[in-house]
Structures are given as structure tokens and as C-alpha cells.
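Supplementary Methods S3. Input chains for the assembly prediction are listed below.
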Amino acid sequence: MEKDIRENIAWAQINKDVLRSLEAPRPLYWVILLVALAMVGVGVGCEIYQYQTGIGVANMNNPHVWGLYIATFIFWIGMSHSGTLLSAILHLMHADWRKPIYRFAEAMTTFSLMTAGLFVMIHLGRLWQFYYSLPYPNERGLWPNFQSPLLWDAMAIFTYLSSSIIFLYVGMIPDLAICRDNMHPGWRKKLYSLLALGWEGTDRQWRNFRVTYLTVACFLIPLAVSVHSIVASDFAMSQQPGWHVTSFPPYFVAGALYSGCAAIISLFIILRYVFKFEEYMTLSILKKTSRLTFAIAMVWTYLNAVEFASVWYSHDEAAKDVLIQKATGTYAPFWWMMIFCGSVVPLMLAFKRFQANIPVLFAVSLLLNLGMWLERWMIVAPTFSHGYYPWAWDHDQWPSLVQWGIVFGSFGWFALLFMVFCKVFPSVSMYEVKEMVYHRSLALKNGETAEEGVH
Amino acid sequence: MMENGFNRRDFLKVLGWGGTAVALSGCGNTSVEDGRETVNSYVEAADYVIPGIGVYFNSTCAQCDAGCSIMGKVREGRVLKLEGNPDSAINRGKTCGLGQAGVQHHYNPDRVREPLQRKGEIGVTITWEKAYELIAEKLKDVSGEEIAFLSGGVSGHLKVLLDNYLASFGCRNHFVYEALAPAVVRAANKKSYGVEMPRYNINKAKVVLSFGADFLGAWVSPVHFSQQYAQFRKGVDGERGVLIQIEPKMTLTGANADRWIPVRPGTEGVLALGIINALGTAGGDIAALVKDYDKVRVSKETGVPPGHIDKIAALLKLRSPSLVLAGSAAEGYAHGSQNAAAINLLNHVLGNVGKTVEAAAEVPFPQMAPARGNTAALKALNDGLAAGKYKVLFNYAANPIFTAPGGMKFKDNWAKADFKVVFAHYMDETALQADLVLPLDSALEDWGTHVPEYMADGAQINIQQPLMERLHANTRGMGDILLALIKQRRPEDYKSYEDYYGYLRAAMLQNKAALGGGGMDDDTFWSETLSKGIVKLAGAATTAVHSKAGATDLTLPAATQDAQYPLQLIPAVNVSLRDGRHANLPWLQESPDPLTTIVWDSWVEIHPKKALEMDITEGDIIEVTSRTGSVKAQAYLFPGIHPDAISIPLGQGHEALGRYAKGYGVNPFQILDAVFDKETGELAMHETRVKISKTGQRVIVVKDESAAGAKQIRKKIAGRMSTDNVDLSKEV
Amino acid sequence: MSVNNLLENWAQFRHFHPVDDKPHDPYKWAMSIDLDACSGCNACSVACYAENNIPVVGKEKYAHGQAMHWIRIEHYWDEDIGVPGGREFPEQGAQFLPMMCQQCEAAPCETVCPVGATNHTADGLNSQIYNRCIGSRYCSANCPYKVRYFNWYDYPTTDNVWPETMTRQLNPDVTVRSKGVMEKCTFCVQRLNAAMSTARSEGRKVHDGEVQTACQQACPTNAISFGNLVDPESRVAKQWARQQVELTKDKQTKDAEPGGSRLRGYRILEELRPYPSVMYLERVRESAV
Ligand SMILES: Nc1nc2c(c(=O)[nH]1)N[C@H]1C(S)=C(S)[C@@H](COP(=O)(O)OP(=O)(O)OC[C@H]3O[C@@H](n4cnc5c(=O)[nH]c(N)nc54)[C@H](O)[C@@H]3O)O[C@H]1N2
Ligand code: SF4
Ligand code: SF4
Ligand code: SF4
Ligand code: SF4
Ligand code: SF4
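Predicted C-alpha cells for the full assembly:
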């Protein structure tokens, strides 16, 4: 059996390696950070222009009222599922191999939610009145509309975001203490002291910590499932052909996990390279992640097939028209690209020799994410160009540079948050890696004893 | 851009400066601080101002010659909206979209606000006194024969005053020009029925057979006809009226027909005779005339299948009375009069005259009767100008430099007159070529009386009254200007009239008895007249229509082929923009053309079959070349057009007229050949032949219709039933 | 702001949809449009611009699909015309259809609005509260008829939309909408409110014909009828009754008649159950020619 981790890494070595990633950045880090900043600059510029001029500059129209913002919003919500999957679900399933990589996956969750949330606001015609959609107390009794999935969205995202931050933070407390103990006095030391909440590693603390972490994990899983189900409800609860699909909630969740996994692979590879984490982010773990991704890809493909088949064999002519429109209309190239990236490309992952081939995996993971982004766009756009009302058909619109600019900027924004996080917080969980090393050495020992017994 | 007239940019600069000067000199919008404000107190508001409540004043729509009566909703001294006046027999409370847009002429930001005199290439603001002096000076040394006055259709007291003014210096050169008047049909009607415009009772007809009369769109009195049409559809004696429209390019009326028949352009008369032949009921001269027009020949010449001719004839026989109309698509040829006469003949043969074609009432004041515009007048003026006959030229309510057919070279000839005065609302193409521009009040600021050309029920005189105060201090009503000018010539006769309002009131009161005010005191009569907005002339005389067919010596040429210019150009009349005078109204520019839904632009309509032959797709920029000139516009594939014809709507392609008109589309008037109807001398609008070629450029056509091409695939969006399956008698 | 209050009001809000135990009273505004009379002339549309301060967006924005016409005149052609192998000419003309907000009784746009900016009034209108709208455009996404128009720009401050002097035409009874809010046909609610207010102060109900929508008022063919469906004597109520179109049904009984009912009334996309308040009367075409 391949090793997920070397069993004889010294614990001090682990601390040293991980803490090193917090120290003086390599030039490559700066390059990435600056690129990310530049991308954010583009996005912010576009948003300022759009805010001032009116959202018409995004080139949406009547009736094509939703565009890339909503598509990209779903995309980022989807991304956010990676962390929850790796941390919470795999934690509950005692999948040890998640340990070196779950921290950055959790950070991804938080940051992609923060990005997604921005899109909800960027999309609004009157961003400055955003708070109307919150059930804030006011003496006029003006409630938001509890029937609207968009309101559920606002609440779900808010809850999910706050829970994710708590989960990320709670899981990080023992590591923050390590940072505190290993830092020279300065702002970092102050920060870690504050955040470590006086962690000393007593038994009582560990006991409470375990219970809390488990509780938050249990809370987070249904939340993750619900948040993307609710995003799916934005469509499924509507009356539009191509949208009111019963299978949308599980389909969205599968898509979310899928894109989350793919993103983990990309970031795994980047971090492994940038921070020289070869020791912890091992090829064996990568292989497991690839297999998991493959499995989810097949689930996604299956759900897609279910959707197409149920539309095709139903008597819902309007929905069928939308499907035909997707496959043959103006959006066809993107739709087929989505099928290719989402269902064909992952077949590569079925081959053992690619499962740990870093260049191939990197390319594949990017393609998978492209496919997942296209999926969201292909959910949103074609229904607008081929809804119930024929007069409004085919009023296609091509997103303006402003729209593209903001979508582009969002990737920079995500990267920026992520890069800053990696320099401020340990992106590999030290205490859990230690646990893993310990477990492995124990297992080896037991194995040896067992082997001895056989002979 | 320099032209042989004014430099447009400088002209506008001066204009803009003039406008600012007005605002500064205190006509309302001043701040409290400068201390010169006239405070309007609602405590002592004028009695017609009720804050917050709209008050309606009656007036007359000036957007076209139909003469619909309107009510203007006025609130806090501003006119906000126009509604139809329910008391008018013409429009019974209704308006068309064009009428609705009347307020936009009034509030248009591009109105001329000051008198302007040409100084070289620019226009300079002058005072009205100076302007009047200038006119007096220019008229001093010229004889009446050297003066020409070009105007659009005028009627009522303005016409009287204008006639008197021209008579005051012995000028007989009043040219009444309307680019889109049914002048040939009028002449043909005069021959066939004895009146130029009989009353057409669409509502009494069981079948309407229309040869290109777009009576629901832009023809004669569209609001009136639309109402009649609605009644006609409900049916006479429970029998729903059937509309058959015969025309080479589908009009709005054609789009509403039970059967739309594309006829080869110009062969409408032949088809009419063919139908008479197929009816087989005519005797004597008429039978002799149509005997050669058998189905086979007619079908061959017109392109209408023999079966259709039979069906039409059968239907006409079965359902009586019917009504046959000759419209602009039939009259626009060198043999237009012949076409119209042949079509009118059908009404005689079918016995419709006296039933659905009736005598119209007449206003008993011939001097007020409308001077009906036509295109022959423009030709006469043009010939005179070309010969250098006219030294001083006035222009009112026409934009000949925009609407004259390119083949006339009108702009060059216009320049031959020494002094050109244009009475203008806007700096349009003609005003730009003037030596003196006099700014007019809008129709909602001015006084007037109008006699509609088409009388619906009894005769009526329509009153036009200001719906609010002048928006701009230095514009004047046309009546006031004429009064000031005539005072220069005959001060004694007119000195008792302080202004046109005074003149109008006095003139009306003079004929109080004849106007139905016998027994009323002057003030009561006058205020009642104004509050009603209409003077109905009970018992007005009518000229009886001839019930016998007129001349039967018709010569109808067969359609010709022209290898060099293979296509017939049909200049289409847009319901809203008409001859282009309304192209500066944003509501109308953004009001989609009903058949193509195109906005803010021109297009070339071409049948898909022809387009396929020439590899043309929607949005291709097409160059359309006639013997006179060429224009380029986007192609629109349209099945409602004869494959041997193309069509470009009129009204767009302005080089002036303000921000909403300038630079949109092309002007097909420019490429019209100067061909005239042989009998009346009217411009044959549909006689221009063209060739088309692709330029290789393509644009996306801006229209409301979706790219899916307005089909309702499998769904019942706009439902349609056949008469067999419906029972209209049960309906409310 | 108790939860109890919330629940109560919520139940009431939901009750405004057509249910037999709580009929509309005293008003239910409705319309019927006779497609056989409608000539497609567009007068109604221009009148609506004039009455409701609708911005003219200009060619460029129109090209982007950002036109604002609350009532648009659609035309439909038979599918086999002008295509290879099909008929050469549209021999029965076009089919015109004025389309505006159908004031759905169970409006798909209302349920999805996150802030309740669009909701149902007691007199059966789908109302739009501009102040409250945050511009999410979900309502438009869910409107089956696509009759909601969004203010993509701030038209009052956009060049040449309402330049000085044009501003003075604006109807003071109707808001000039700012950027980022949704709008649509209101059944000329300002006219209805004025009429209802007058009637209330005179202690009576609005009688039939007392109030007209701007489009109805202009329409040269009288194709549009408008009135109170609760009043059985109103023209609209009589038309609906005669055509056997019932507001609270998603499938009319008459449509089940074998061979057709010989009645022209129908509602568009009725089967989606929005319970539209506009009945159309089918266009008729002569079979003998
Ligand atoms: N019957 C009745 N009475 C009411 C109310 C009601 O609803 N009904 N409402 C009450 C309420 S809420 C209010 S706020 C009050 C308002 O009562 P007021 O404050 O009396 O308000 P206005 O009647 O608007 O008068 C303000 C005056 O200021 C002048 N003015 C305008 N601009 C300027 C400026 O720039 N400088 C100066 N110096 N003067 C200026 C105006 O010409 C006007 O004369 O009325 C109260 N009274
Ligand atoms: S038909 Fe002519 S007069 Fe009548 S409302 Fe329309 S534009 Fe005005
Ligand atoms: S037609 Fe559309 S906008 Fe109007 S009520 Fe129905 S769903 Fe809402
Ligand atoms: S655009 Fe306005 S009315 Fe429509 S759903 Fe969003 S907030 Fe509600
Ligand atoms: S009812 Fe009023 S708001 Fe609605 S389309 Fe007609 S005019 Fe416009
Ligand atoms: S005004 Fe009347 S006839 Fe004209 S398009 Fe509107 S509904 Fe039809």
C-alpha cells in the first residue's frame, strides 16, 4: 500500500515545515499576489462603472434579465462545498487522508462563499438597497417575502458563511497555539495569542475541542446540502421551462461537490508547489482525491442524463424545446463544451496512470472547473432565450466586457483572499498531520506485529 | 459640413445662444435670488388652474389632415396628454399613435425659438419687427407674379387670410403641396362620382375590396375608418364584413385582410376590369370595355391566380353592398388615373354608389374649404423656379427639400429665388436653406379653425385653441404673422384686429347664425364654441354623387420589364412618420413599425424568395439604385411583398430636424424618378424602378420581434378562428 | 412585529388569490381584447408612453433589448410562410396581439420577489412598488409573458430621454422611475385610484365606463374593453360571462366541448395557472375567400 504520509516525520519537523510557509514569501508568491490584485482591480473598476451608470452596461436585457453574475454566483457557491466535503463529511467518515489538505479546503469554502455573496449584490439593480432583503427589525412591519427562494438564499448563504468561518476557526485553534508558541514577538504573536484563546493542550481542552468540532461538522453537513439545494430552488421553484426540474437540488449538490473537488486538486497542486509541501500533500492523497472526483463526476453525469431523459420523455414541450435549444441553438457550443468538460474529461481520472500525474491532473482539474462554470451558465441563459413566450425568444445577448470583467475579477478576489490566508494562517493542519503520522506509525507497528504472528 | 445654404453648425450655435438669452431674460424659470421672478400664486390662480387636478380643453389634432378633435389634459398650466374628443363624428373620442404624440411637437427641445436671418453662412437672431421690415423691403420691388407661396394643406380662416394676403399684391402663385396626398384618387373620384372625397361607409359594407388603400394606417382619415372597420368586423345583420386587400406591398390594412392578394405592381386597374368581367353583370359600354379582360389574360398580367378572381367575383355577387377603394398603391403610376378610374368603376357595377359611397357634407363657406395639397403643385413651382420666375418665396408647413423627388432637383432650383422665407417649427432641411426663418407657435399654443378634408357625418369646423401659454417667448402663430404681414399692405382693413385671435373671433361672430349660434349673445356663442371645440353645421349642403358610371375609355398598359432596373420601388408610408415631418418625435421613432417591428431606422423590404435568389439575408446593407440616385439600407426579408418589388419606408433619412430625426435611416424621396401621372400631372410615386446590390456590410436589425421570427410554435398565443367555427351573434 | 402578526398577515396575503370563499369585493379590474378588431396600429402603446412616463431609450439601447414599452404589439405569421417549401405569401395577413402585464391573480412574479416589491392588491391588480424594489429581476425571470421591463439605466438623467421642455410633459400622477427598478403595465392604476377615490367620497362604486385605461381610451378600433369584473353589469363582466371564461379556472369547461365551443374568448398560457385578468377574443378569418 502506498503511503499517504511518511510515518517517521519528526513532529518538530512538521511544525517547522508548516510554519515556514508563513515566513518570508518567495518571489512567486508575490507574483501571484500581484496578479490577483490586478484582477481585483479590473473587477472593482467594472463594478464602480456599473454602479454609477446602471446595470444596463452589463448588456442584459428584457427578458434576458440574468446573466453571468447569477451563473458565477452558483459556481462559487458550488466551490464552497469542497471544504465541507473534505472536512466535515470525511471527518465523520474517519478518512484520515483528508488531514493534510482539509485546512485549505475549508479556507476555500469560506472565501468562495464570500465571493458568491458579492455576486448576489453585484447582480442587484439597486445594490444600495440590499438590506431590504434581510428580515431586519423595523417598526413598519415591512417583512421580506418569505416565499421567495431568493430570500432563502440570502439566509442560507449567510448561515453557511458564518458556520464555515466558525468551523475553520475552531479547527485551527490548536495550530494557532503552535504558531503563538513559535513566533517572535510582533503583530503575529499578538494575533495568534488572541485567536488561540489560551490553548494549552490540556486534556479537558482537547475533549471540549473534539466535541465542538464534531458538533459544528455535523451542523455544517446538512447546511451545505441545503445551501445548494436552495440555490437550486431559485430555479426549481420557478415556473420556467428548463428550470422547474425536480432533480435540481441533488443535481446542484452533486455539481457543487464536483467543482469543489476539482478545485481542491488545482489548489493542492499549486500549494504543493508554491509552499513545497511535498511531504504532506503526497501523491497518494492526490490519487484519493482524483478517485473521489471521478466518482462524483459520474454521479453528476448520471444526474444530467436523468434530467435530459425525463425532459425528453415527458410531455412538457416547453422544457423539451429548451433542451433542444441548448443542444442546437446559439448556446450549443457552450453546452457541448460543458458536456465534454464535465462528463468526458473526467474519464481520464479512471486511468491509474493519470491519477497522480500532476501536469495531467492540473489540466484536467482546470477543465472540470471550466465545465462546471459553463454548467451554471447553461442553466441560467438558455431558459431566458427560449421560455414560454415565443415573442421573447432568441433575444440573445452576449455579456458585455463589464460582466466578464467582474467575473474575471472575482477569481482574483478569491485568489487574493486565499493567498493572504496562506501567509497568515497555517494552510496545513499541523496537529492533525501529527495525528496522522502517529496513526500511521501505530498501524505500521500493529502491522509488523501481525505479520510476525503469521510467520 | 458646408452646404450652399447655411452652415449648420454655426446656425445651431446661434440658435442655442438665442435660446439661452430667452431663458435669462425672464420667462419663468428664474431663481428667487435674482428678484425678478413672477410668483404664481395658487391663492389667486387663474380660474382654469386647479392645483393637482387635470382640466380638459378641446382643440384639434394637427398631426395630419384628418382633423380629429382632441381634448388636452392641462394641469398646473402644462398640457400633459391628448385624448380624443368623444363629440367629434370623425374620431369619437379616439386618436391614433401619431395624434398621441402631438405633445412631443409642442415640448420638442429642438424647436426654433427666435427669428433668424441669414448672414452669409450663419443665421443671426433678429427681432420680429426687423423680420417684418425685411419682408416689406424685399417685397417692395417685386411684382405679384414674382412671388410664390408654397404651403401644405390649409383650410379655415388661415386660408382666408393667406388668400387675402397674396391677393394684396396680386400674387396668384399659391402652391399647395402635400407629398403624400391621394390627389389622383381625388381626381378620379371627381370623374366617377362627381365629388373628390365621397363618404365611404365601410361599416355598411359586407365586403371591402381595397386596392392598396391603407385606411387603417395612413390613408385619409385613419381613426375614423378604424372605427368603421371595427363595426364592419362585428358585421351588418350579423354577417361579418370581409376585407380583401390587393396591393404589391402589405400595408397595415393588408395585414388585417381576410385575403391579402399581392398583385404585380401597376396592374391594379387590369385586375379591377378582370373582376368586372368575371362578375358578368355589367352591360353596355362597360361590358364592351371589359370584354377582353378575361381571367386568363388578367391572371397573366397581374399574377393573381384565376381562382382568386373567381372567388372575389363570387363573394361580391353574394354579399351586397360592398365597397371598393382605390388607394395610394393603385394611383402611383403614370397611368394612375386610369387605375383609379377602373377601380371606381367596380363600385358602379356593384351598385355601391349611393349605398357605401355617399355624398359628403360640405362646409357652406367655400373660402374656408381645404386647399388640398398635391404634388403637381410642387412640380409647377419647381418649373417656375427653374425658369427663374420667382424672386421671393415663402414656405409654410412643407419641407420640400426633404420630400421633393430627387429627379426634380428641387434644392438647386430653390436656390434660384433671391429671398426665401420659411415659417418653421424646426430647422428642417428647407429651413436650413432659408434667408429668413420665422419661428412658429406649436399647434398646442396656437389659434385656428380647420375644415377637415374628409367629412365623417355632417359638416363641421374644428376649433384649435392654445392648451397652454407659449413655451418660448418669441414664437408666433401663423395667423398672427399673416395678420402682421397683411397689415403692411392693407392697414386700414385690418387695423381693428389686434391679433389673430381677435380676427378669428370677429370672423366667427360675423357668421354666428350660419354657425348655429343664432339667438345667442356673442360671448355665450364664443365660449360655447371654444368649449366644444367643434362647430357642427346642421343641414349643410351635400353634392350628390353620380350614380352613373363616367368615362369608360380606359387604357391600361401591361406591366413592363426593365432589364437594367428589374425591381419596382414601393415607397411605403409609415403610419407614424408620414412624409417625415414627425421623425423627430421620440415616441414615434421608438414605436415599432407594425409589420416589421423595426425602430429608429429605414429598411429595404424584400421577399424571401428574391432574397434567396440574390443571397441576401436580414441585415445585409443593400444599395438601391434608381435612374435618379441611390440609397443604402439594411435588408429585411418580408413575405408580404411582391417578389418583383422592394419597399423602403418614407420619413427617415433626415439631415436636419433635430436630435431625434437627424442621422437615422435613409430618405427614399431622393431616389424617386420624376415621372408623373399622365392625366393629373401628379407625381407617380410607385413608378421608380430600381436595381439592388449587396455592399458586403451587414448590421443587426434593431427591432422588437425576436430572432425566432414571430412564430407561435405549437402554442396558442394569438388565436385565430375561421368564420365557419364562430358564432359572432352571441357576443356582447 | 410579533410572529403572530406575521403569520396572520401572511395568511391574509396568500388569500388574495382567487378562491371561492373570498371573492373580490367591490372591485376586480379586468380587461378583454378583441383581436378581430385590433388592427395592430400601435396607438395604445404610444398612449401608454404618454400616460405613464415611459422612457424612450433610443436606438442603441433598443438594439440591446432594453426597450420599455409596457404594452407591445406583437404580430405572428403562420409558420409555413416565406420558408422554402412553404407558402409564398401571408394570404391571411398577420395576427396582431397587444401584450401587457396580464395582472395575474396567482402571479408567478409575486411569489419570487425577495422583498415583496410586487404583490397583489385587493382589487385584483399585480402592483409594483418602485421604492421597495431592489432590482433582483427574479420577477421578470418568472413572468411567463415577459412583460416586465427593467430600468437598466437612470433614464431621467440620461441624455435626450427627457431633455428640458420634454420634462414638462411628464404626468405628475405617475412616478418617474429611477435606475435599478422593475416596472410594467399597472392597468393605469393612477386612473383607477382617482376614480375609486371619487366614488368612495360620493358613497358609491365606480360605474362601468367611468374609468378607462390610456390604451383603451386611444384604441381607434375599440378593441380593448376594461372594467370591473365584480359588477355583473359591466361590459367586461358580460363579455367574460358570454365567452364562458372564468377567472378562477385554469381550464375552461367550454374548451372540452367536442368540435369547439364557437366562442372566441381565451386566456394566454392559462394552463400555467397564473389566472390572468386579460381575456383575448380570437381573430376571425373568412373561410369563403
Ligand atoms: N392643514 C394642514 N396644515 C399643515 C400640514 C398639513 O398637512 N395640513 N402639514 C404640516 C407640516 S408636516 C409642515 S412641514 C408644515 C409646513 O409649513 P410651512 O413651513 O409653512 O411650509 P410651506 O407652506 O411650504 O411654506 C414655506 C414658505 O417658504 C418659502 N420658501 C420656499 N423656498 C424658500 C427658500 O429657499 N428660502 C426662504 N426663505 N423661503 C422659501 C415658500 O415660498 C413658502 O412661503 O405645515 C404643517 N401644517
Ligand atoms: S388621424 Fe390624424 S388627426 Fe386624427 S388623431 Fe391621428 S394624427 Fe391626429
Ligand atoms: S403577467 Fe407577468 S408581470 Fe404581470 S402579473 Fe403575471 S407574472 Fe406578473
Ligand atoms: S426586480 Fe424588484 S420587484 Fe422584481 S423581484 Fe426583484 S425586487 Fe422584486
Ligand atoms: S392599462 Fe395603462 S399601463 Fe397598462 S398598457 Fe394600458 S395604458 Fe399602459
Ligand atoms: S390601439 Fe387598438 S387597434 Fe391599435 S394596436 Fe392597440 S389594441 Fe390594436
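The CA atoms of residues 248 and 642 of chain B lie 5 Å apart. Residues 1-38 of chain B have pLDDT under 50 and may be disordered.
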